[in-house]
Amino acid sequence: METKMTERVPDTGVMWPRRRLLKAGSVVAISQLACPLAQAELGKKGARLVVGFVAGGAGDNLARTLALDLQALYPAGLIVDNRPGASGRLAIDALRVADPDGNTLLYSPSALLTITPHAVKAGNFKPLDALKPIAAVSRQDFALVVSGKSKLTNVAELVEKAKEDSSFATYGTAGAGTPQHLIGHLLAKATGAPLVHAPYKGGAAALQDTLAGHTPICIAAVSQQLLGFAADGRLRILAVSGQKRSSFLPSVPTFIQQGFASICVEDWSGVLAPAKTPAEVVTKLAKRLSEITGSTLYADALAKSGQEVLSDGPAAYTERLRNESARWAPIVKDAGFSLDS
C-alpha cells in the first residue's frame, strides 16, 4: 500500500499531501520568475525608439523629435536606433526579440505595416501580429507632379497625354512597394493609361529627374522640398492623394475631386511596442503621445516636413492599420510585384 506523506500548512491547520505542496511551490516559483517582466517599470533602463530608415532624413528627424518629447518617461535615457534595410523589416525584427516592457518602441510609417507584408512572401512576415499599436502621430499626402514647363493642368489631361505619347507614360517614385508606386498603379487601372513605374532610391532622386526632364511624371510625398519647387514654378502639382485637400496646397484638388474615387491614399506614422506589452504600459505611453500631438511645437515640427498632426489612440490606431492592410492586400497582388529579392 502506498503511503502518502503529508505536511501541515502553516496557519491553516490543514494537512496537504507533500506532492501537492511541491506542485504548488512550482507554480509560485514560475509566477515569481514571470513577475519581473510583467511588472518592469517604464524607463528604469536605457530605452530605444527603433526606426527603419537611415539617420538624417525627414522620418528620422521626426522620430528624434518624438524621442525628445518622450524623455520624461525615460529617466535612464531614450535613444533613436536606426535599423535601415530589408524594406524596414530589420526594424520589425528588433521589436520581435525585445522585452515587452515599453522600453523598446518602433516609429513606423503605415506602408511598412500595411503594404510591405503583402509583397513579402518569404519568412511569414506579419508585423501586426508581432506589434501592439500605441498611437498614430502624423499623416502625409502624396502629389502627382509634372515639370513646371508642362502645359498639363489636371489628371485627365495627364492621362490623355500618356495614352497618346508613350514617352510621357513613365512615373518616378521613391521605390517599389511605396504608396507612391501603388497610386500610379491605381491610376493606370482606373483609366487604362499605360503608365510605367520607375522606382528610385528615395523620393528626392525621383523629384530631381522630373526637374531635369528625364522622367515626365513623379508621384511624391508632400514635403517642404516639393512645395518649394512648386512655389518657384519648377514643378506643377496636378493632384493630391488625401481624402481632402492638403493644408499645404489648398488650391490643388484631390484625385477624388477630379473624378478618381479609387485613389485616396495617405500615409500615417505611429508608435508601436512588442505585442505582449502590458496594458498599463500602453496606456501610459498613449497618454504621453496624446499630449505631444496636442502641442503647437510638435505641429510646427511636422509642418517642416510637409506632415500634419494625427492623434489616434491604441484602439483607433489598431483599427486603422487592420483596415488598411485588408485594403492593400488585393491591390498589391494585382500590381504583381515582390520585395523578396
TrEMBL record:
Top-level taxonomic group: Bacteria
InterPro entries: BUG, Bug_dom1
Family as reported in the entry's similarity comment: Belongs to the UPF0065 (bug) family.
Name of the molecule in the record: Tripartite tricarboxylate transporter substrate binding protein
Species this protein is from: Comamonas thiooxydans
